[in-house]
Every structure is written in C-alpha cells, then in structure tokens.
Specification:
411 residues; alpha+beta; FAD/NAD(P)-binding domain; nine-stranded mixed beta sheet; eight-stranded mixed beta sheet; 10 helices; 32% helix; globular; binds flavin-adenine dinucleotide
C-alpha cells in the first residue's frame, strides 16, 4: 500500500536529520519519513569530515554561513552536553608563515570581529608557541571558541531520538523519481518503494542537484566532487600537535587549506583535507571513476571556467596529493620537526562543491523551491557546525512558503 506522510525528507546526513528534528519539535503531530540510499546514517560527508566546531571567523559578514554558524553553535553545544556526546572547545591557531600572509591574517581577524566571534586575538611567535610548542610562524590568530566533536555520533544520536518520536527512517532507498503535483509529492526509489507526502525536503548532499533536476528544476549550477584526503600522524609524533593548527586560507577559495586536527574520538592527529577533483561522487577509493559523474562535470560550462581560473591551484593540489615529499614540505612550514616517517595515509571525504554556470564556487548555503518541495542545494563546510540552524532556516522557509503552523523553537 502506498504510504503517505506530511513531510518526506531525502537524505540522512546531518542536515536531513536535523531538519527532521526541528520539524518533529515544532510540528509534533507531523508524519515524517526520511529516506536514504545507504544502509547507515551519515555515511557520506557528515561521517567523513574534520570534526571541527567552527567559530564563524571565516565567513562573509551578512552571509547565511556567518549567521547560521554562530546560531547553530549554541544549539549544537547544548545538544552535545545534554546527550553526553564527546566534544572539546580546544581552540585553534591560524598561522601566517610568510610575510605576504600578514595582510590576509589581519583581514580575517577583522572579519571575525565583525561576525561577533568570541575569543579571538592576534599573537606573535612566542605566545603562539605557548599554545602549540612545535609550531613555527610569524603571526597567528588564536580562536578559543573553536572545538572538536564527532559529527557521525551527533547524527546517529539525532537519528535515535527521531525514531523514539516515531519518525520513520528508511535506509537503502535511493530516490530516483520525484513527481511534484498540485496537492502532493510522490517519490519512487530504485528498489520500487513508493511514498507520497504533502511536502518534500531534499537534503541529499552531493546528489541534491540531480534530485532537483529529477523534479523538473533546471538549476544552472552543478555539483563538482572534490576529494579531501587526510594523512594521520604516527602515535609517536602526535605530541607535536596539541589541538588545531590552520593555515591562512586563500580568500578566493571555499577551502580552508590543509590543517592539523586532533580527533575527539581517539586523540589521533589528522592532516588535511586537501582538495583534488574526484571522478566519483560517492566512492571512497582514490581511483574510482563514474562515467555519469565525469560526464556531468565535463558537460558543465561552469566547470571549464573554474578550471581556467584555478588550474594552477588544482595542479598544485594534485601534485602534492601524488608526491608525498611535496606535501611534507607544505606541512613542515608549520611544524618543521615533521618527517616522512611521521605521516601515514588516512581516510578521505568528498566535498559537494556547487559550481555556478559562470565558474564560481558557490560559497554560501543555498536553497531552491519547486512547488511543494525545497531543495538544500548547497550545504558545504561548515554545514555540520551550522546544521541545527540550517534546519531551523529550512523549516521556517517551509512555514513561509507553505503556510505551516509551527510551534516556537524549543532550543
Ligand atoms: C573532507 C571534509 C571535511 C569537512 N570538515 C568539516 C568540519 O570540520 N566542520 C564542519 O562543520 N563541516 C565540515 N565539513 C562539511 C560537512 O561535513 C558537510 O557540509 C555536511 O556534512 C553536509 O551534510 P549533508 O547532510 O548536507 O550531506 P551528507 O552528509 O553528504 O548527506 C547526504 C545524504 O543524502 C543521501 N542521498 C544522496 N542521494 C540520495 C538519493 N537519491 N536518495 C536517498 N538518499 C540520498 C546520502 O546517502 C547521504 O546520507 C567537511 C566536509 C568534508 C567533505
């Protein structure tokens, strides 16, 4: 029998799950269904990231990223406390290692102040080494409000709470057809499962552009998969990093650069992620190729414009990805004591990078509406940190567009 719901959510990453949580709190008798193609929650980006609780220092003042990151942090931290999930506000250093980075560092500091980021200050090399004794640099910003957690565990706990509230989560169902009608939305998955809902929210990460197209939208932007590889420090060299060490980012790019991250789960230190074009959206093998994914990239005029602008950066990342000596030189700029023996290959994640037709990498969070459906088209980093506020933003947009009557927010 065809099952019918008030809201169907496609995607059980941290965004889809927190959207369901917000809906369950503010529209308690709504019948909710979450569909995900994988056999477990948070299988893609939400379970394969750096685990950093971002402070909001990087984002353009007035952007959704700046606002929602700051709003979400408070809710996330409360959730972590209430649920007794591991986290630590361990602070981070953003380090300038070359004189030409000083101006960018100061600009970043100003940006953080305008965004209202708590606990930021500029410091010189001596003070820097009190925080990270092995770091080398000319100047740094210390951000005490940055932290670490495990977003996979956050997503799993949100999922458990949803099930307790009666939300149906159906795994192993890849949605491949969406029909938006005047009074309902119908979906079908590759297993033949079908359901209808009064509304649909798609939070399918790197596949959201395809779902939008399947629903008849014509987004001019397209997802380009960008692999982010990590190396891990061998146990005997972990003492070289106490917490988080970041480079000064290139303001033209949405990536923050290879950084050192101490993990909350096992105190391991990860280095990365880099940013290399991937030929597969969802397979975690370096050489995985999917012809449809490649054709989608090659057929997008925006990709070629992007490639013309950033080929030098892309080539550098590719070179360091394949040539460990070059990678080592890059990370030694921050910690000169590191040697080849300290680095072990680690896992990787694949970023969903939305690229516009004009070749710009879309930086801010973005949503699109088609009839009774909302598509979370762009939720790149720091969407794990910002997820609780993105969820509120999505649900309130639903109320605005569809006339939902919601209870006031509970957290
Ligand atoms: C390497 C890396 C490092 C990062 N580091 C950080 C960090 O330190 N801090 C931070 O805040 N953010 C970080 N991010 C960003 C953050 O992880 C993502 O922005 C966030 O997880 C996005 O969540 P999501 O739910 O939108 O996407 P996803 O987690 O990718 O979830 C999408 C879900 O949709 C499902 N799906 C897709 N298509 C279909 C379909 N057709 N039918 C059914 N289900 C479907 C997928 O199986 C998946 O479960 C990082 C990301 C990467 C890749």
């Amino acid at each position: 029998m065809l099952q019918s719901y008030d809201v169907m959510i496609v995607g059980a990453g941290i965004v889809g799950l927190t959207v369901a949580r917000e809906l369950a709190q503010r529209w308690p008798d709504a019948r909710l269904l979450i569909l995900d193609q994988e056999q477990e929650l948070a299988f893609h980006q939400s379970g394969r990231n750096s685990g950093v609780i971002h402070s909001g220092i990087y984002y353009r003042p007035g952007s959704l990223k700046a606002r929602l990151t700051l709003e979400s942090r408070a809710v996330l931290l409360r959730f972590l406390e209430e649920e007794r999930l591991p986290y630590e506000l361990s602070g981070k250093l953003i380090v300038a290692v070359r004189p030409e980075e000083a101006a960018k560092l100061h600009q970043l500091y100003e940006n953080g102040r305008v965004n209202g980021v708590a606990g930021i200050r500029l410091m010189g090399p001596d003070e820097m080494r009190e925080i990270e004794p092995h770091v080398r640099g000319l100047e740094a910003i210390y951000v005490s409000s940055t932290g670490i957690t495990d977003y996979r565990q956050v997503a799993l706990r949100v999922g458990e709470r949803l099930i307790e509230r009666g939300v149906r989560i159906q795994l192993g169902e890849r949605v491949n057809r969406i029909q938006i009608q005047s009074d309902l939305v119908a979906v079908e998955t590759t297993t033949g499962f079908r359901a209808t809902g009064r509304y649909l929210i798609a939070a399918a990460g790197i596949q959201t552009d395809r779902l939008a197209r399947a629903a008849g939208l014509q987004p001019k932007s397209r997802m380009v998969p960008v692999r982010g590889n990590y190396w891990t420090l061998s146990p005997q060299s972990r003492h070289l990093v106490r917490s988080l060490i970041y480079p000064v980012p290139d303001p033209r790019l949405p990536f923050l650069g290879v950084h050192f991250t101490r993990r909350i789960s096992d105190q391991a230190v990860w280095l990365g992620p880099n940013a290399v074009l991937a030929a597969h959206r969802t397979r975690y093998r370096r050489r995985a190729v999917n012809l449809r994914d490649v054709a989608d990239i090659a057929g997008h005029p925006g990709f070629w414009r992007l490639a013309r602008r950033f080929w030098r950066y892309g080539a550098g990342e590719w070179y360091r990805d394949h040539w460990i000596a070059a990678y080592l030189r890059q990370v030694q700029e921050y910690i000169p004591e590191l040697t080849r023996r300290d680095l072990n290959p680690g896992p990787f994640g694949i970023r969903a990078q939305l690229v516009d037709a004009n070749g710009a990498m879309v930086d801010d969070f973005r949503m699109m509406r088609a009839g009774r459906a909302l598509f979370v088209l762009n939720a790149p980093s720091p969407a794990a940190t910002a997820s609780f506020a993105i969820a509120r933003h999505v649900v309130e947009r639903g109320a605005e567009e569809f006339g939902w009557t919601l209870r006031p927010p509970t957290d």
